[in-house]
Amino acid sequence: MQAFDIRPIREEEIYRAQCYIDQIAKPLGSMGKLETLAARLAALQDTLQPTLSPREHFVFAADHGIEREGVSKSPREVTRQVVESMLRGGAGICFLCRQHDFALHIVDVGVDHDFPLEGSCLIHRKIRRGTRSFLHESAMTEREVDQAMSIGVACVDEAAQRGCKLLSFGEMGIANTSTSALWMYFLTDIPLEDCVGRGSGLDDTGLQHKLSILRQAVANYHGATDAPSILRHFGGYEMVATVGAMLRAAELGIAFLVDGFIMTACLLMARALHPAVTDYAFYGHIGDEAGHARLLRALHADPILHLGMRLGEGTGAICAFPILDSAVRMLREMATFTTSGVTDYVSTPD
Fold first, then answer.
1. Which entry of 95, 156, 206, 346 is 20 to 30 Å from 277 by CA?
2. With a threshold of 0.70, does the pTM exceed it?
């Protein structure tokens, strides 16, 4: 597996940025979470004038062998259908990227379909037409893990060459909430039943079947429980590519937005491999998939939004962008006590 050299953001760097924020012409702490976000962005980019432009969003797409076990309300054909909707510009992530000026890239790392080679924002990096079923065998080979990680790394490298200052990641892959639940189960102390949710809309019977299949998968697994082993045995191509992308973004010092349950599970795995990666992550929202709130608590995360979303694709992450943008604009556009003519004052909370 590829090695990464990720520099932790030091508390002193955040403190220096906060000292500047305290000189902005406003009561101390009066901009709330915007101040926390701004201080971290300033420390991350090593400037009191951070920027979030240009910005890019990558949707990694792949199918999962575990889907054949009936763990999802939707069949695997929906992966292909949603990707095609993205390519036509009609999916949820498309209007949000247009609205907030994110360049959109869709990366096929393992969809069980062959898409046209030209005329779209699709990046062709297919490893295989879906993973194997981890109920019976490892979902991925070691070589496939390396391939998927390298795809994520290459996507970030290309974005960095284009001058990207903010990244966001999303996914499309029917049954990937099952992989996310098992990554969460093995990498935290949370019981399996608290990690498993309804995905694309399972009823109570379907939810119990999904939980039963995942329990069987856990019982059938006799391998090591270190992060690389869990990543390979229960992984999905699109999720491993995302882990690689997150780690490379952090290595290059690029902030990135984290979407819902599946992308948060990818960050959990990335953290298990390299803990400093979370310094570069901004949590877009808390979603309605059952395990997401518990997973965010396990990561000590403070999500920006709570809109009841669970679409995936990165939609919740992009929705949070205007808040980050406001934090940056506060730094770049608000006057200080020195430059504003406003008398310095201190305010206490109400």
1. 95
2. yes
Number of DSSP helices (H) and strands (E) in the chain, helices first:
14, 6
Task: Give residue-wise pLDDT tens across range 29-41.
Answer: 889 999 999 999 9
* Distance separating alpha carbons of residues 122 and 324, to the nearest angstrom: 27
Alpha-helical (H) ranges within the chain are 11-21, 33-45, 77-88, 92-100, 142-161, 176-187, 204-220, 227-234, 237-251, 261-273, 292-298, 315-319, 321-333, 337-340
12 counts as catalytic: no
d(CA 38, CA 43): 9
Per-residue pLDDT of the chain (350 residues; tens, 9 = 90+): 789 999 999 999 999 999 999 998 788 988 999 999 999 999 999 999 999 999 999 999 999 999 999 999 999 999 999 999 999 999 999 999 999 999 999 999 999 999 987 767 899 999 999 999 999 999 999 999 999 999 999 999 999 999 999 999 999 999 999 999 999 999 998 999 999 988 878 899 999 999 999 999 999 999 999 999 999 999 999 999 999 999 999 999 999 999 999 999 999 999 999 999 999 999 999 988 878 999 999 999 999 999 988 888 999 999 999 999 999 999 999 888 776 555 665 544 44
Distance CA 48, CA 181 (A): 39
CA dihedral sign of residues 195, 97, 274, 223: positive
Handedness of CA 228, 62, 295, 215 (dihedral sign): negative
Query: Which is it for the CA torsion 302, 311, 235, 245, positive or negative?
Result: negative
State how far the alpha carbon of 225 is from the alpha carbons of 176, 181, 222, 263, 332, in Å. 20, 15, 9, 21, 46
d(CA 182, CA 162) in angstroms, rounded, equals 36
Catalytic residue among 69, 144, 313, 333: 313
CB atoms closer than 10 angstroms to residue 242: 34
* Contact (CB, 8 A) for 120 and 84: no
Is the separation of the CB atoms in 330 and 53 below 8 Å?
no
Q: What are phi and psi of 168, to 5 degrees?
A: -140, 150
Distance CA 267, CA 278 (A): 7
Contact assessment for residue 106 and residue 87, using Cβ atoms and an 8 Å cutoff: yes
